[in-house]
Design a protein that fits this description.
six-stranded mixed sheet, three-stranded parallel sheet, single chain, alpha/beta, disordered N terminus, about 300 residues
Length: about 300
């Protein structure tokens, strides 16, 4: 009896010291463990969030945050040799590739809103921007009304192109709105006078203008069309994975590590051309750092 009871006690102890949730993994965590790889979706020209540098290596602010999350997943699964695979995505493909399981985390410049939350989930907001437009200074465009009857470009699959189409209809502006495959192509259309303006998040417009041949030629509208909180996407209805991701992001904020990561990409020279965006942390994002949130409601980011 004593030997039998001792065996049961030892067996129970072994069970208690086994990796937490080793036999309870579900969803994304289970898939990642089984294939030994976590797949990160990245952009090609979303400077400074996720893009290729001059060595064709994926770099950027959101990409760096995703690598931190990948480290947290390795620790959670007790898989230090877990591989990190990179999969390029576009504005049009990012949501489908998250939803169908091709990509585990989408790390770029993706707006977290209530409509998208019906299809995917988001982790803690990592940037707060606004929807504006860039144009050439010589055209003297100040407001959307100034674009009446003009050719306007925005990137396919974004909230920005949806919003400018709605405004075009509601205000009867008669704009010809062209969808571009990516941000670089859209800016090029303004640069070559094939479009009068490019409607997009102001931080992306600022980075594209800063990297143009002659940045002094361009101006970004002062009036904001909307507030846009950015978040890293993951699959919907996967609470176990979201818990790991959210905890990793929250730790980056509460530890103060976010300050160095932010400064690296927004207040210091960045590849490929050593441009400094000179963009200190805004008040809206300071609030997020102090009180991390994954809200998709723009009202939660306004003063």
């Amino acid at each position: 009896m004593r030997k039998g009871r001792l065996f049961l006690i030892v067996a129970a102890a072994i069970g208690l010291t086994a990796p937490a949730g080793a036999q309870e993994l579900t969803g994304t965590l289970q898939k990642i463990k089984e294939r030994g790889t976590i797949t990160i979706g990245h952009r090609d020209s979303s400077i400074p969030f996720s893009y290729y540098d001059d060595k064709q290596q994926v770099v950027g602010y959101a990409h760096e945050l995703c690598l931190k999350i990948a480290d947290a997943v390795k620790a959670e699964l007790n898989e230090p040799n877990l591989k990190v695979a990179l999969n390029p995505v576009t504005s049009a493909t990012r949501i489908p590739l998250i939803a169908n399981g091709t990509v585990d985390l989408e790390c770029g410049s993706t707006t977290n809103n209530l409509e998208r939350q019906k299809q995917v989930a988001f982790t803690i907001t990592h940037f707060v921007t606004a929807n504006r437009f860039v144009s050439k200074k010589s055209n003297n465009f100040k407001t959307v009304a100034d674009l009446k009857g003009k050719t306007v470009v925005s990137t396919a699959g974004t909230t920005n192109i949806k919003q400018i189409n709605e405004m075009n209809t509601e205000q009867n502006l008669g704009m010809r709105i062209i969808p571009a495959k990516d941000h670089a192509e859209a800016f090029l259309m303004v640069e070559t006078d094939r479009a009068a303006a490019f409607v997009m998040d102001d931080i992306l417009l600022a980075s594209l203008a800063a990297n143009a041949k002659d940045p002094s030629l361009y101006v970004i509208s002062e009036d904001a069309l909307s507030t846009e909180p950015y978040g890293i996407m993951l699959r919907k209805d996967d609470p176990a994975f979201k818990k790991v991701v959210d905890e990793a992001m929250t730790k980056i904020y509460t530890s103060g590590e976010i300050n160095g990561i932010y400064d690296k990409w927004f207040t210091q020279p960045i590849p490929p051309r050593g441009i400094n965006l000179n963009l200190p942390v805004g008040e809206a994002f300071k609030k997020v750092i102090a009180n991390p949130t994954d809200s998709g409601d723009p009202k939660d980011y306004q003063n």
